[in-house]
Amino acid sequence: MKFTAILHTVLLGLTAAFSLPTEPSNKPSLPAVVRRSRFTDRLNSLSPQGPSADSPGVSYTQNWAGAVVTAVGYRTVAATIRVPALRLPPGAKADTPHAVSAWVGIDGEHACPNAMLQVGVDMYMNHSEPAYWAWFQWYPNLSTYLTDFAISAGDSVTMNVSASSLSAATFSITNHNTGKTGISTLADQAPLICGFSAEWIVEDFWDSDGVPLVDFGSIEFVEAMFSTDLGVTAGVEEAKLEGVKEGLAGDPVIECGKLGGDALTCSYTGGENS
Ligand SMILES: *[C@@H]1O[C@H](CO)[C@@H](O)[C@H](O)[C@H]1NC(C)=O
Ligand SMILES: *[C@@H]1O[C@H](CO)[C@@H](O)[C@H](O)[C@H]1NC(C)=O
Ligand SMILES: *[C@@H]1O[C@H](CO)[C@@H](O)[C@H](O)[C@H]1NC(C)=O
After folding, report:
1. pLDDT tens column, 87-112
2. By mean pLDDT, which of 56-65, 143-152, 228-237 is the weakest?
3. Nearest ligand 1 atom, CA 126
4. How far apart are the CA of 197 and the centre of ligand 3, in A?
5. Where is the signal peptide (predicted)?
6. How many alpha carbons lie under 13 Å from residue 92 in its C-beta half-sphere?
7. pLDDT of the residue at 20
8. Which ligand has the shortest distance to the CA of 209?
9. Which residue's CA is the nearest one to ligand 2's atom 14?
10. What are the Cα distances from residue 167, in Å, to 115, 116, 117, 182, 194?
11. Does the beta carbon of 25 lie inside 6 Å of ligand 1?
12. With 0-12 CB in 10 A as exposed, 13-18 as middle and 19+ as buried, what is 262?
């Protein structure tokens, strides 16, 4: 299985007001390097007969859970999440940061080999201290973290990426509890997006050492919507669901289900052993 790594680095120069904690803290530091896999890794196609706990019609991957629509002309994808409290799984090493990421994107599926748009929140737990970081990315460019954008458990956060053409997009993220919006518009970008998929994803992401999955309880995406270049707007009614398994024989560690036409929930269902 081939993964093309995405280098996820810190662009500190973008925001001026960023002060370091004055006391020693367990709070996870801003990740220096995170590698996200470019595409979902479809265990389902290799393992048509999964354990009985598997939900029918769900594709399992090693890293992405959530919902995906595929066709042509996707230009906007958005959703609002309630930021979850985090816990280390039973038996987890407290000094190993555990993580998960929730994001919305365009062109994450295999059909578009060139580019991918994403905006979301990385969530880390180190000892008992959580840290939440908002970011956006025009793959294959590096992702940009919003270092002065506060996020806490329980906050309601809207993520939105909207492409005005195949080479320009506006990424926005709003924390309704702080009233703050981070917004960035990129124009004249290359490579071009395709607009072949829109997705709402909870990612068990990888970095150079592998980041173990944190117990996030569940993450609900509400007001999940996409729109197309022809002005069609819809939710997740027609979306395919994905879940995460660590390996072919394993039980799912993230399972997702739809909650009506414009919402879905993804739940942590199992632990990794570190
Ligand atoms: C985790 O907390 C320890 C302090 O207990 C700190 O030294 C370490 O840098 C933290 N790890 C990360 C990734 O922030
Ligand atoms: C993204 O990378 C392309 C080259 O691949 C470059 O032309 C463009 O300016 C980059 N955009 C940003 C925002 O860094
Ligand atoms: C998403 O962003 C676009 C462009 O900034 C905006 O026109 C649209 O109303 C936003 N949609 C949602 C659901 O927030």
Report:
1. 999 888 888 889 999 999 999 887 78
2. 56-65
3. 1
4. 17
5. 1-19
6. 23
7. 43
8. 1
9. 141
10. 10, 11, 11, 20, 10
11. no
12. middle
CA distance 93 to 79: 33
Q: What phi, psi does 67 have (nearest 5°)?
A: -135, 145
**Ligand closest in space to the Cα of 130:** 1
Q: Which domains does the chain have, with CATH numbers?
A: 5-10+37-268 (2.60.120.700)
Q: Check pocket membership of 104 for ligand 3, CB cut-off 6 A.
A: no
- Does residue 26 line the site of ligand 1, with CB under 6 A? yes
- Is 175 touching ligand 3 by the criterion CB < 6 Å? no
Identify the residue with better confidence: 198 or 251.
Answer: 198
- CA 89 to ligand 3 centroid distance, Å: 36
Is the CB of 160 within 6 Å of ligand 3?
Answer: yes
Rounded distance from Cα 127 to ligand 2 centre (Å):
37
What percent of the chain is modeled with pLDDT above 70?
A: 77
**What is the 126 CA–ligand 1 centroid distance (Å)?**
6
Asked if 66 and 252 count as a contact pair (C-beta separation under 8 A), the reply is no
Backbone angles phi, psi at 13, to 5 degrees: -65, -15
Q: Let me know the angle formed at the C-alpha of 25 by 274 and 180, rounded to the nearest 5 degrees.
A: 95
User: How far is the CA of 146 from the CAs of 12, 22, 74, 199, in angstroms?
Assistant: 9, 20, 25, 22
Least distant ligand from the CA of 235: 3
Strand segments (E) across 50-107:
59-61, 64-70, 74-82, 98-106
Which residues are designated catalytic?
A: 203
136 near 163, Cβ under 8 Å?
no
